[in-house]
Amino acid sequence: MSQIETFYDVMRRQGITRRSFLKYCSLTASALGLGPAFVPKIAHAMETKPRTPVIWVNGLECTCCSESFIRGSHPLAKDVVLSMISLDYSHTLMAAAGHAAEAALEDTIEKYKGNYILAVEGNPPLNEDGMYCIVGGKPFVEQLRHAAKDAKAVISWGACASYGCVQAAKPNPTQATPVHKVITDKPIIKVPGCPPIAEVMTGVITYMLTFDRLPELDRQGRPAMFYGQRIHDKCYRRPHFDAGQFVEQWDDENARKGYCLYKVGCKGPTTYNACSTVRWNEGTSFPIQSGHGCIGCSEDGFWDQGSFYDRVTDLTQFGVEANADQVGMAAAGVVGGGVALHAAVSALKAAQKKSQDTVSQSEEV
Amino acid sequence: MTELIVGPFNRVEGDLEVRLELRDGAVAAAYANSPLFRGFEVMLDGADPRDALTLTPRICGICSISQSAAAAHALADAAGAEMPEQGALAAAILHGVENLADHVTHFNLFFMPDFARLAYEARSWHSEMVERFTAAKGASQHAALEARARLFHVTGILGGKWPHTLAIQPAGVTRVPDAADRVRIVSILKSFRRHLEARLFGGRLEDFAGLSGLADLEAWTQGDAGLFLRASADLGLAEAGQGPRRYLSYGAYPLASGRVTRAGVWAGSGVSDAATGEIVEHVAQSWMLGTAAHPYDGATRPDEAMGAPGYSWCKAPRLDGQTCEVGALARQIVDGHPLALALADEGSVRARIAGRLLEIARTQMWLEDWTQALDPTAQFMGDFTVPKSGRGVGLVEAARGALGHWVVIEDGRIANYQIIAPTTWNFSPRDADGQPGPLEAALVGAPVAEGETAPLSVQHIVRSFDPCMVCTVH
Fold first, then answer.
1. I need a surface site. Which of A14, A35, A125, B162 has the fewest CB within 10 A?
2. Inter-chain CB proximity A285 and B161 less than 8 Å
3. What CATH code is carried by the domain that includes residue B405?
């Protein structure tokens, strides 16, 4: 093969119609928060650019990221992305096995030197010279370094690759280490969450494949478009928080009414992720909707922040309020008169909550 | 005698390496190495017991509800708590959906693609296999992935998210489904049934679940199931990969009325009670320090020197000193299904796949019945307080077989937590007596052609167990 195919070629080869292709482009644009003007740009890029190869490697992990990825999103988006990546190297999904698989990895690295994206699921354990995770007879950390050497950029899938996640929980028996502490000379994008939301994963990867650059990142290296807001900010139970209406214990009267889960340990107020907007399992629901508080799985070190069932104590309630109102103000042009009312109600509730909070703090002692 | 190391295996959950000793073109001895260790039991030491509900599901992204259910039952046992009838029902639906999805994933994504390999080009069924099961491209794979994603809307409705659902608690579930949820679940299950009947079985689920013997099974030609059976007959998979033919099941889906499938051990003749108090985990040939012990007294201390004769991070669980095979086939045999009983003595690659297909049909029907029985006005969660001290065991059936959590609580914190996962049983290394684990025994005699580096027979046998390596060592 003398010429590298474009995305569009690959998609057509997969039997995807032009109509579906365009639908995919507009879905992608909206998922990424881009306006309709971007649809033709995405389409053009996918028609003309050679497809970017992706290598997907697995370290110490539970495969939940792959699981989330393959059952997620618009089926077409998944088909497209799968058709783009699985051609190269994916541990969970590829056809080859054993040394043939390792050879496929070498081929891809060689063929697309400096041009491929390395997606990492899981992380390398460094204790015992990395012997707690062996791939093809060698410590995973070696495979990771080797594959990263010639990568254009690295995606850290999930809390494991981004922060260490569960295997790095105290006492971190294997010294599981996030990717950015091992690979220090490449652009790294973190997509935390345990697992990340499928739509977020496809969104990030499509953006990179389409525009050939990293999306805008926040200070922690996460794509701002998905990790820019707290779950609390867009939670559908937020009005109950503002109204001081809380679930006291599971399946009580308040739980059935769908009140706020803050008192049973919800970490939504300190967690940046898109769960309350994008939701899970193709927009069906998210943990708070199932009546269980958020555990903050997209935050660094969430395993060792005390019990998952104790309420958040470092929450500056008025800060959060102010923030939410700023968001409300930005939308003023659309919402009109409702905002003034909202602000007034919020101020009222804030005053209520202050007294309630004094009480709850003394309860806790 | 030559030696061959097979691995890494793709299309299994996690990492696996098998060392084979070959003699006269066949496997003379096999050593299964689980090369991935994370140390969950160490992390749980000293933790708030409720942390087990969020930590242990992270052992595995494909059986996370099984882990969560086992943790919930272990804590409930320690606290003397019980799930109300409807809470247990909702938990069973969540768990059943995951098990069903896992079986379908295994068949379509992990097991069948091997038949589309070039080495089988001359076989009469090869072109159909290529069309339906070429890795990441096959028509059946696409259909299964889509159907599976829709099926998981049920875990979305009842559990908020999947994988790593938080809804199952020791005394029930956090989500009370309303009438509209029930209707949605019914319709999702209907669409999944259509997928199974059109693609996988090419016939009614009731008919497949009604098969009562080998002749019946061999006469089933429709659907992907029929295609597998044709290839299986051609390749002699009924004679390949015979396990220990001793099957263990803890009994699946604990409802208020009792477990839906029977618990016990089948060995040669009938089913006897499983004396779970007699389970011992050996560490003699594992990279673990310590001595053989029941999980309540067990410890997890990795041998950092990785010294011989150890060759795996996996411990070696034994019941009454013997190995047991666990999984869908084991569950169906112990439950006394006539087709499964007819396959018990065969214990082969074919038997494992047929057992799983049988369980797919039965699980779908159970899920439909359970959903009908949901009562949104009932209580879904009872009382649970973490005990100051105590111990408890949670025994459930994951897709891949018997899963147990044993917890010891002292001063309100976890003093010991031990987990034996299904693949810990199936892929265990040798014990102190040198007795090989079920997979290691099943591989003996597998033919390996001259120059084959990833022998096909070995691939089929390994994958027929549906190993979950991340659970195995945890």
1. A35
2. yes
3. 1.10.645.10
Domains along chain A with CATH numbers: 7-227 (3.40.50.700), 231-364 (4.10.480.10)
Question: Residue B72: which H helix or E strand, with range?
Answer: helix B64-79
Give the distance from CA B140 to its chain's centroid. 22
pTM for this one? 0.84
Nearest to A353 by CA among A221, A226, A241, A205: A241
Q: Do A134 and B37 touch (CB under 8 A)?
A: no
Q: What are phi and psi of B156, to 5 degrees?
A: -60, -50
Number of structural domains found in chain B: 1
By Cβ distance, the residue of B8, B134, B173 closest to A98 is: B8
A98 → closest Cβ in B6, B61, B148: B6
Kindly report the three-state secondary structure assignment for every residue of chain A: CCCCCEHHHHHHHCCCCHHHHHHHHHHHHHHCCCCCCHHHHHHHHHHHCECCCEEEEECECCCHHHHHHHCCCCHHHHHHHHHHHCCCEECCCCCCCHHHHHHHHHHHHHHCCCCEEEEEECECECHHHHCCEEECCEEHHHHHHHHHHCEEEEEEEHHHHHHCCHHHCCCCCCCECCHHHCCCCCCEEEECCCCCCHHHHHHHHHHHHHHCCCCCECCCCCEHHHHCCEHHHHCCCHHHHHCCCECCCCCCHHHHCCCECHHHCCCHHHCECCHHHHCECCCCECHHHHCCCCCCCCCCCHHHCCCCCCCCCCCCHHHHHHHHHHHHHHCHHHHCCHHHHHHHHHHHHHHHHHHHHHHHHHHHC
Distance CA B380, CA B177 (A): 9
Task: Identify which of A82, A75, A20 has the alpha carbon closest to the alpha carbon of residue B143.
Answer: A75
Q: Which of A11, A284, A304 to mutate to test the interface with B (most CBs of B within 10 A)?
A: A284
pLDDT, chain A, mean = 76
Q: What phi and psi, each to the nearest 5 degrees, are found at residue A60?
A: -75, 115
Query: What value of ipTM does the predicted structure carry?
Result: 0.78
pLDDT tens figures, B369-423? 999 999 999 999 999 999 999 999 999 999 999 999 999 999 999 999 999 999 9
Residue B70 makes CB contacts below 8 A (sequence gap 6+) with B56, B394, B395, B396, B398, B403, B404, B405, B419
Higher pLDDT, A136 or B364: B364
Phi and psi at residue A264, in whole multiples of 5°?
Answer: -100, 25
